[in-house]
Amino acid sequence: MSDTQAVPVLAHSATRDPVEALNSLLRRAGLAVHCTWIPGVQDVPDALEQLNPELLISFEPDSDTLAQLCDIRDEVASAVPLVVVREAISEQIIAADMNHGARDTVTLGQPERVQRVIQRELRAFRMERTLITTLRSAKDYRHQIESVLQHSNDAIAQVQEGIIVDANGSWIELFGAKDPAELVGQPLMDHFHPDTHAPLRGALAACLQGRWSGHTLRATAVLPEGGSADLELVLTLGEHEGDPCVRLLVPGRKQDEQHLASELAEAVRHDPVSGLLRRRYLLEDIQARLQQPLRGGVRYLACVRPDRFAELEKEVGSLQAEDLLMAVAAQVRAMLAPSDIAGHFGGTNLLVWVERGNRQDVEAWSEQLLERLGNHPLVLGNRNVSLTVSIGLGLVPQTQADLNSALADALAAMRRARERGGNQILTIGRADTDARVVAYDAIWVKHIRAALLENRFKLVQQPVASLRGDAGQIFDVAIRMLNADGKEILPSEFLPAAERNDLMKSIDRWVIGASLSFAAKNKPDMLFVRLSAQTALDMSTLLPWLDSQIKARQFEPQRLCLQVTARFAAEESSATRLLAEGLRSRGLRFALEHFGNEERGLALLEKLPMDFVRIDGALTQGLAGNSAAQGRVHAIVELAGQKGIQTVAERIEDANTMAVVWQLGVQYIQGYLVHAPEEVVLKS
Questions:
Q1: CA distance 316 to 335
Q2: How far apart are CA 668 and CA 470, in angstroms?
Q3: Which residue, 188, 179, 81, is CA-closest to 127?
């Protein structure tokens, strides 16, 4: 075997001598290798990526170094086997090294065993690599054939390193090109709106790594003569002239009679210019949604009305004023999530049904709408017109929901916002100010105490998915209370009363205990469990109680990650530090959730010990088209990486946002795109 065919091997060692000795030993045995000496652990990641070795060998690593090497190997090239070489070995030493992640431990004093172990690991590595490549090729080929057969009229382009290398006639026609040379050989991004660039780059990178699983990407194409078109792109991994590429596909539309009839029926429901629902159909859709049980979070009605519209209409004229209204409607439409409903409510009012994880998320959506309008002056002829809006929010209760009451609240809040000068958000919060709160609490306190006594609670979960291809089972845990008839009651109904009446510590301990039992029995990789402020401040009893629970349930502590909000950590930094240190000293993990909107957020990463930081859903909403928010997320990810903290993006609801957080380096995501919110699967 010549040197050009030699097996690439990375050899980590403090000195070169043992590397040369191993190289000579293997060559004498007829195994041609090319050993690259790596003296420092910090150089291993780059070497794994650039040299594509088939084997990683470490000479005399201490326990911490070996653990670090295994972590690097698992993250960068998990299939590469790691073999430890020591001067003297025993069964205990071999077992300890393998527990860290090594495949085996050998000594140069037993050359025959060294040869056999290395041959075995190389054979296993090559077989696994061949199997993966074969399966991926077969799967990709099958998908390509199916795509061609099923979408013969689709517009298709192939992209390598950001350049369009091929495009069919439908793609050329779609983009209004007269000559293929106008597109082929050009950067893909030149043909899409800048707001689309971040998600498109992220999706291309994910697809090339085989981690884009059929999600549709929304993108705005830039057409000749200043036109644009909203497209839904299907991305698949392909091949062009022997090299990998990403195939972009815009599905063709088959205009059969049934499809045409469906389109016509849908067109009747929507305003032809704004694309939003007409008033009658808007109210019908909201009423229908009102009848559906909410699986989690909150729902609001948002009433959006332009400020000073009558004055603007006099200034620019009725026709151009109508263009202003349509521009506002377009901004609202661009911000809708899949679960939202929006339409015209009469006059200049727009009404939006908004479902989010909590009230802060709804307010964040509203603030982003104000920001979009403020940052994008509307163009009328040769002039720019600044238009602000007032937004009124009305909470839709979880039980005994009344559309009329919620509408009245949203309208009243909108009017108050206008009276205060406009360009602001206002919420009617009856539950917080009504004198009936005391009576309300008295009822709920009885129900909560009875439920605790009778064990009428259960856990629910939402999966947390890795963007690095890990197949682990990680869940975010929440709680449901059951009434006497076994019907679920959402946390937003009973937790406010529990917080006001000092019952959160009892509820938290029920959740922790149930989570410990589940984890001890079912062995998930990790459960995220949130702590209330009351529990987090009660370390003097919480930590001893955790000690007794862990011992009694024979629980592996690393399977549980307890979390508090970033707001709590900012307000109670000393207590949070003591809590984090106490939990981590017991082997438990610690996280901050709803992170990213606190002014002191990055300072918390600098000074608090933690394992995970969970980026707030209020920050990830609208991320694909918000460069400022992307910058904030990037800063969080970068600093967290420097501190060895892993990142989770909360409430990822669409493929565009997933593509952006992928590009920004976020490691895990959670939300509607991963799994329907809070599907019940965990039992205490």
A1: 27
A2: 10
A3: 81
3-state SS track over 150-184: HCCCCEEEEEECCEEEEECHHHHHHCCCCCHHHCC
Domain 439-670 has CATH 2.60.40.10: no
Q: Give the pair of three-digit tokens for residue 416.
A: 């108050």
Which CATH topology does 151-250 take? Answer: Beta-Lactamase (3.30.450)
Is-same-fold flag (151-250; 439-670)? no
Q: Which two tokens stand for residue 215?
A: 């999600």
Residue type, 265: A
Q: Is residue 356 helix, strand or coil? A: strand
pLDDT at 467: 85
DSSP string covering 36-77, please?
Answer: EEE--GGGHHHHHHHH--SEEEEES--HHHHHHHHHHHHHH-
Q: What is the pTM of this model?
A: 0.64
- Predicted pLDDT at 433: 45
**Mean pLDDT computed over 614-634:** 86
Q: Indicate the pLDDT class of residue 216, thresholds 50, 70 and 90.
A: confident
Domain-by-domain residue ranges, the chain? 3-132, 151-250, 257-433, 439-670
Residue pLDDT, tens place only, 511-522: 999 999 888 888
Residue pair 384/417 in contact (Cβ under 8 Å)? The answer is no
DSSP 429: -
Helices 17-28 and 111-150: angle between axes, nearest 10 degrees: 80
Rounded to the nearest 5°, which phi and psi values hold at 599?
-60, -35
- Confidence check: pLDDT of 575 > 60: yes
Amino acid at 641: G
* Domain 257-433 belongs in CATH node 3.50.50.60: no
State percent of the chain over pLDDT 70.
Answer: 88
Closest CA to 619 of 644, 636, 638, 640: 636
Most confident of 259-263, 269-273, 439-443, 457-461: 457-461
- Measured CA to CA, the distance from residue 219 to residue 505 in angstroms comes to 47
How many angstroms separate the CA atoms of 326 and 344, rounded?
11
The CATH label, of 3.40.50.2300, 1.10.3660.10, 1.25.40.10, 3.40.50.720, for the domain at 3-132 is 3.40.50.2300
CA–CA gap between residue 309 and residue 316 (Å, rounded): 10
pLDDT at 647 over 90: yes
